Amino acid sequence: MTAQTSSRTAIVTGAAKGIGAAVAHRLAADGFSVAVLDLDTESCRDTVESIKKAGGRTMAVGADVSDEQQVSTAVGNIADELGAPTVLVNNAGITRDNLLFKMPADEWDAVMNVHLRGAFLMTRETQRHMVEAKYGRIINLSSTAALGNRGQVNYSAAKAGMQGFTKTLAIELGPFGITANAIGPGFIETDMTRATAERLGIGFDEFIERSAKAIPVRRVGQPEDIAATVSFLASAEAGFISGQVLYVAGGPTD
Ligand code: NAD
User: Fold this and answer.
1) Ligand 1 centroid to 192 CA: how many Å?
2) Shortest CA distance to 36 belongs to which of 72, 49, 118?
3) How far apart are CA 246 and CA 90, in angstroms?
4) Ligand 1 pocket member 194 (CB < 6 A)
5) pLDDT, average across residues 25-39
6) CA 133, CA 224: separation in Å to the nearest integer?
7) Is the pLDDT of residue 223 over 70?
8) CA distance 84 to 78
9) What ligand 1 atom has the least distance to the C-alpha of 67?
10) Closest by alpha carbon to 248, among 144, 116, 93, 119?
């Protein structure tokens, strides 16, 4: 087993709510000091306060992951306040769903910018601390949508892109004790899937019920399902797993 680094600081992007908030909670419970990063510090307040209440060490960080300067400042502040980050969870994400023939270019760009440019900037900025520590864990949020999903040509392409990004990180950073893996969630109950239900014109409860019927374990996922997976991939004992895509979807994916 790889020796655990002395630094136990993790960054979770998009951690104000949903999957990111659950991941931040879980990593704090695992003993990490957790930087809760989202578009503005105010939105991080709930996550930060509940982590503190549970006895965790944390800070709120306001930054747009697609903005180079904001990312650089944010990672610098995190390193100063919590210690050098050696775990990075690239979770921040948006959807701008539309069928290809009517998708404006700015909906394509917005999705690419948050998922791909955001993960690239955050990883480039954070890896220097990991390389110095000769230890690191990078976990990127992909999706079952990477395999294709009607109405999500931009999101699907971005999530497939996250997989190539992850595999290349694994190759380039492996020699420094750093692993990189991607998680591909299926249906997880968050505001993102709530918005999908709205787009489809059905109630969220009905959407959940219908979706669960098509999932082998007969339920939709919860943010905690993804948090548990991140917890394992972020652990020292996962050090021989790298460049993998782990679908967490209640059944196999094609
Ligand atoms: P969510 O909408 O509940 O939360 C996303 C968070 O990301 C929000 O707090 C938002 O403010 C933040 N964010 C958006 N743009 C940002 C930016 N530029 N900089 C910083 N933060 C930003 O979504 P979720 O369902 O929790 O999804 C989290 C991740 O999991 C996303 O990458 C999503 O694509 C992925 N995912 C979700 C599902 C699902 O079913 N919910 C399935 C597969 C993959």
Assistant:
1) 7
2) 49
3) 15
4) no
5) 98
6) 29
7) yes
8) 7
9) 18
10) 144
H helices within 30-64, ranges in order? 45-53
Q: Is 155 labeled as catalytic in the residue annotation? A: yes
Which residue puts its alpha carbon closest to atom 19 of ligand 1?
A: 64
Answer yes or no: is the C-beta of 91 below 6 A from any ligand 1 atom.
Answer: yes
Q: Mind listing the pLDDT tens digit for each residue in 151-201? A: 999 999 999 999 999 999 999 999 999 999 999 999 999 999 999 999 999
pLDDT tens by residue, 95-134:
999 999 999 999 999 999 999 999 999 999 999 999 999 9
Q: Confirm whether pTM is higher than 0.90.
A: yes
* pLDDT confidence band for 254 (50 / 70 / 90): confident
Q: Which helix (H) or strand (E) holds 108?
A: helix 105-112
> Which tokens hold the place of 198?
């709205």
DSSP string across 90-157: E-------B-GGG--HHHHHHHHIIIIIHHHHHHHHHHHHHHHHT-EEEEEE--GGGG--TTBHHHHH
| Cβ neighbours of residue 113 closer than 8 Å, sequence gap 6 or more | 66
250 C-beta closer than 6 A to ligand 1: no
DSSP β-ladder status, 85-90 and 58-62: unpaired
